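anyone seen this seq b4? input:
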Amino acid sequence: MRTTIHPTTEGVLNDDAGSTVRRSVLPSGVRVLTEAMPGVRSVTIGYWIAVGSRDEAEHQYGSTHFLEHLLFKGTRTRSAMDIAAEFDAAGGESNAMTGKESTCYYARVLDTDLPIAAEVLTDLVTSAVIDAQEMETERGVILEELAMAEDDPTDVVHERFSEQVLSDHPLGRPIGGTTAAIRAAAREDVVDHYRRWYRPEELVITAAGGVDHDQLVGLVAEALEGSDWDVSGRGEPAPRRVGDVQTIPVREGVAHHRKGIEQSQVIIGGRGLAAGDQDRFALSLMHAILGGGMSSRLFQEVRERRGLAYATYSFSAGFTDAGYFGLYAGCLPEKVDIVTEVMVAELERIASEPVTAEELARAKGQLRGGTVLGMEDTASRMNRLGRAELVRGEFVDISDSLAEIEAVTAEDIARVARRLAESPRATTLVGPSAQA
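predicted toks r here
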């Protein structure tokens, strides 16, 4: 079942396959969504803010990711050690993730420890101190994180490809910021970014597992009353991010980034599909056939038949108003030319010739299995609620997702592949030679 999520919709969004999805909007504008899974003794809870690296002003580059670190460093009532100790004492796991369009702080705990998780997460999201000394310490930690990523050639080629295919658009900026931006980040700019985005109307709380919806709403309301946020008035949830799909200029041709490594990393690709595109299920099946597993065309042709690379695959990234796709391989420098030729030939073949019935059936089985198995994890369901609220404004249950997969035809896959193959093409190469 598909359920459209209107800004003020409350009540049951879905009641299927043994789980119940509910949504409430607090008077302050905070949204709470839960999926109760009978028989599950754990809960994954996430606090979402619809701010990512694309939303940073020029003088705030890297601030979103900086905040991901700083919010765990202390609040008005808790030190960084207090936050860590409370989660450890509950036997829980806590972390955060920053994307190009959203940030999430989350924890996985026993159902009996949900009150602790809700209280601590509310505290760190609403009442962070952003201490000057802690910021200096964490600046060093983030610089180490960036350096670690720069030492991983696979990370480097994906980051450089994103920059190349998204050109000068804000989506093309690195999520973690650059070394120069982090070194230059001023506390007042990071604090301004925090105050701009971390507000009741922007907060979405999602939880899945052994959770009682009414209990969680009560816990959140109580925690907010004791926070640094003013929740005394009435507020409306912030509008979802919207935007017409953009034709972002692609920096065509080869961008070579020399690095003293033994193997070359290469990605070739271009514009893809936005997150809400109606062809997204066909795209997922196309990737399963083209480069999504050991039976995929890329794996079989590049690795198994020709022995040109150890790793090769295809991928996509979708955002509100844009997207990109790529074909990846890691190979010896002297093999870059032939590897890219083979990958492009496979892309053009899947765009021009219908996939076989056997390939289609195998891909559908792979995607169905991945969908169902993924939903047996409380973190996956928590994330699904967050995406439904922030991105699509629509909750799609597993049964309907499986039906969408089953409905895709060979012609649907060829059509979406043609959309990708006809896109302006960029090649990103990281390695010791300029061959491509």
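The chain has a mean pLDDT of 94. The chain has 15 helices and 14 strands. kinda curious what u guys think
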